[in-house]
Specification:
Elements (H helix, E strand, L loop, with lengths): L14 H26 L1 E7 L6 H11 L9 H22 L13 H21 L4 H13 L1 H8 L10 H6 L1 H4 L8 H6 L8 E6 L6 E6 L4 H4 L11 E7 L15 H14 L8 E6 L1 H10 L15 H15 L7 E5 L5 H22 L4
Parallel strand pairs: 1-3, 1-4, 4-5, 5-6
Antiparallel strand pairs: 2-3
Bound molecules: guanosine-5'-triphosphate and magnesium ion.
Magnesium ion binds next to helix 2.
Pfam families: G-alpha
Keywords: GTP-binding, Magnesium, Metal-binding, Nucleotide-binding, Transducer
Protein name: Guanine nucleotide binding protein, alpha subunit
Length: 370
């Protein structure tokens, strides 16, 4: 980035020399400003959006991609979260098979369903201390996952019971997770679901740069949103994350509200916010892996009758991109959109690089240097 400049003449005598000196001094000052920006910048980034949309997952990816290991994450806590995500998902399925009219492929499996329903809560309340999953419970889960079709049938309609998006992932890792020596991998940590209860700030040094990110992660449920506004000052970029796959789901905190209707309303409110008015926004249309699979099983037109693109992924994504862009209240600001898959590190690394680049460019523009 260095601008070339020769040494200034300390005692200019001719008008030409004076003019040359002024030019060089200006160049030096601008270069210093750019250097200061490049050397010392800490960019304030907000991760906002509804609950369960992937904000904390993206924060973990920001860390992994910038080579800031997740080691300081409490590993015992992470282990408990993976175990409880697995067991509570299996229990939720067992409890809902009847109401969803899904029949067992083998009636003998009723015995295992009963064990899961009766034992899960007790085992989880003892787990933190004893670190043990009794064999009858782990065996019941294994038998159901490996030999009972009803479990897989239920996952397909998981949206109706608000089943965790990572349920299938954790079922597939059952043998590892039930092992007493189990240690969660990065992938397990990226898939776990633990709603954010407290706002956190994480300082992440940007890889191959002297800049840093100061990332604020918020809880997205309606109860958590009232805490947000206190953190809106001096923001460099707001990343708005919502789960594009959640068009057929309702809010946990209010089952009468569709998740995408809520996500649109929330985005509109944030875009109208006076403190954030001049801030650029990046929107992540997250969980595209689930969205792609879901379109053929759960028609989008059922929820948006005006949508005519069938199960075509590109059509459906464009449909939502247009909707969100039209909701932005300040047409002067830059709003960019990305289709994201926050649990996939390779996919995220391109998005993270692009986001950091645009953040650095915005900052230079704001500082009047471009
Ligand atoms: N399949 C899939 N799962 C995802 C994706 N992004 C996040 N998840 C999962 O979705 C769940 C919710 O993600 P979180 O990052 O906890 O969501 P959040 O927005 O921080 O939620 P709150 O803290 O409650 O506001 C976790 O189990 C994640 O692993 C994605 O792109 N694809
Ligand atoms: Mg979170």
């Amino acid at each position: 980035m260095g601008l070339c400049h020769s040494k200034t003449n300390v005692f200019p005598s001719t008008p030409e020399e004076k003019e040359k000196n002024t030019k060089i001094n200006k160049q030096i000052q601008e270069e210093a400003k750019i250097k200061e920006k490049n050397d010392n910048s800490t960019y304030k980034l907000l991760l906002l959006g509804p609950a369960d949309s992937g904000k904390s997952t993206f924060l973990k990816q920001l860390r992994i991609i910038n080579k800031m290991p997740l080691e300081d994450i409490d590993i015992e806590n992470a282990k408990y979260t993976c175990v409880s995500n697995l067991l509570l998902s299996m229990k939720l399925i067992c409890q809902n098979l009847e109401s969803l009219s899904i029949n067992l492929s083998d009636e003998n499996n009723k015995e295992y369903i009963k064990i899961v329903i009766d034992k899960t809560d007790e085992v989880l309340s003892d787990y933190k201390e004893k670190k043990i999953i009794p064999e009858d419970l782990s065996n019941a889960c294994k038998k159901l996952w490996e030999g009972e079709n009803a479990i897989k049938e239920c996952i397909k309609v998981g949206n109706t019971i608000n089943l965790l998006d990572s349920a299938e992932y954790f079922f597939g890792k059952m043998n590892d997770i039930f092992n007493s020596e189990y240690k969660p991998s990065n992938d397990d940590i990226l898939h776990q679901r633990a709603p954010t209860q407290q706002i956190s700030e994480t300082i992440i040094p940007i890889l191959d740069s002297n800049d840093k990110l100061s990332v604020f992660d918020f809880g997205g449920s309606r109860y958590q949103r009232m805490k947000w506004a206190a953190f809106f000052d001096n923001v460099d970029l707001m990343i708005y994350i919502f789960a594009i796959s959640s068009y057929d789901q309702t809010l946990l905190e209010d089952p009468s509200v569709n998740r995408l209707v809520d996500a649109e309303e929330l985005f509109k409110q944030l875009s109208e916010n006076k403190i954030l008015w001049n801030r650029n926004i990046v929107i992540f249309f997250n969980k595209i892996d689930i969205f792609k699979k879901k379109l053929s099983i759960s028609p989008l037109s059922k929820y948006y009758p005006e949508y005519k693109g069938g199960d075509d992924y590109a059509e459906a994504a464009t449909f939502f991109a247009k909707r969100f862009l039209s909701l932005n209240a300040n047409k002067e600001r830059t709003v960019s959109t990305h289709l994201t898959w926050a649990t996939d590190t390779r996919h995220c690394s391109t998005i993270v690089k692009l986001t950091i680049q645009s953040l650095q460019q915005y900052a230079l523009v704001n500082a009047g240097l471009q």
